Amino acid sequence: MPIFVTPFAQLDLIRQPEQQAEPLQAFDAADEYLLKHVHEQGLPATARVLVLNDNFGALAASLAGHAQVTSSGDSYLGQQGLQINLGRNQLPADAVTFVPASATAQGPFDRVLIRVPKTLALLEEQLIRLHGQLAPGAQVIAAAMVKHLPRAAGDLLEQYIGPVQASLAVKKARLLVATPETKAAPTSPYPTRYHLEQPKLELLNHANVFCREGLDIGTRAFLPHLPKHQRRTRVADLGCGNGVLGIAYALASPQAELTLVDESYMAVQSAAQNWRAALGERPLTIRAGDGLAEQEADSLDLVLCNPPFHQQQVVGDFLAWRMFQQARAALVKGGELWIVGNRHLGYHAKLKKLFRGVEQVAATPKFVVLKAIK
């Protein structure tokens, strides 16, 4: 793998989850450009630096030992990447403080370095939380590859931080440098809420939750066909998002024991709040994690999943395939994985490679609901 070379460090970095013959790097030209700019501007060893949305730790690990570094993001795999990459490069595990996006990093910060996230609502919430957290003379610098940099990102920086200067593009990357100015305390529009008629629920969604404004069409196709059980069942909602699948299943299956897991901290935060609102103190296991990687083998009777088809800006079915493998390992013999997916993704054929039986439960012109039996 290529070495990430900047004025601060030379690092051997890997992505998470690890793939054999990984085709993608754990860093890009936007990371390089951002660190070069920070170095040119000067970075005192006493500076407090906040790094937002660092994909796999390239920024934070580079700055470790050069300043007091806090990293914050919404990805469990991003945090795992940071920790693994610190270790790979003989850097202390505590060289960077990590704060999940479900919490607020405590300043004051002298530098804020932002990788512009795919979800602009997450960027907006992060900028809102910077109010009162910037030291005098602070710099706020956002970076992205030009193809992933919408005009709205600069508008948000200007709205919440101050005047923005866009850099020239270098290696197809660009920086947005915002000069902080005094502004009135903003009111966050997040979390958002929407109502569901069947089952009757109000669902709360923090800023980075998938389909924050309303139920996504895949889940809408899945909900009427969820299985129901009156007996005790051990069930996981894998990639739970705001928790709607697990909550809907639990409402119709009063003896079920639910585990909800997602790699987004804001999704887990949303799902926990929605579970309490719908099911009160009914026991629940919920965690941010790498899917079912931590789940004991043969410990589940049923897995429900609406698998993602992208990781940040990278589109592909590698995460879904990994979830199917994890589900198979976690299920008891005879246990079932129920999924919804776009017809064109061909999940039926993929599941047949892992499970002894695969059947179509329902279909719409765009989606299929499949049941796979271990």
From TrEMBL:
Subcellular location: Cytoplasm
First-listed, main subcellular location of the protein, grouped into a coarse class: cytoplasm
Boundaries of every Methyltransferase small domain copy: 201-371
Keywords: Cytoplasm, Methyltransferase, rRNA processing, S-adenosyl-L-methionine, Transferase
Domain RlmG N-terminal stretches: 2-181
CDD domains in the record: AdoMet_MTases (cd02440)
GO molecular function, one term: 23S rRNA (guanine(1835)-N(2))-methyltransferase activity
Catalytic activity: guanosine(1835) in 23S rRNA + S-adenosyl-L-methionine = N(2)-methylguanosine(1835) in 23S rRNA + S-adenosyl-L-homocysteine + H(+)
GO CC annotations on file: cytoplasm
Regions that span the bilayer: none
Annotated family: Belongs to the methyltransferase superfamily. RlmG family.
UniProt-listed HAMAP family: 23SrRNA_methyltr_G
Full protein name: Ribosomal RNA large subunit methyltransferase G
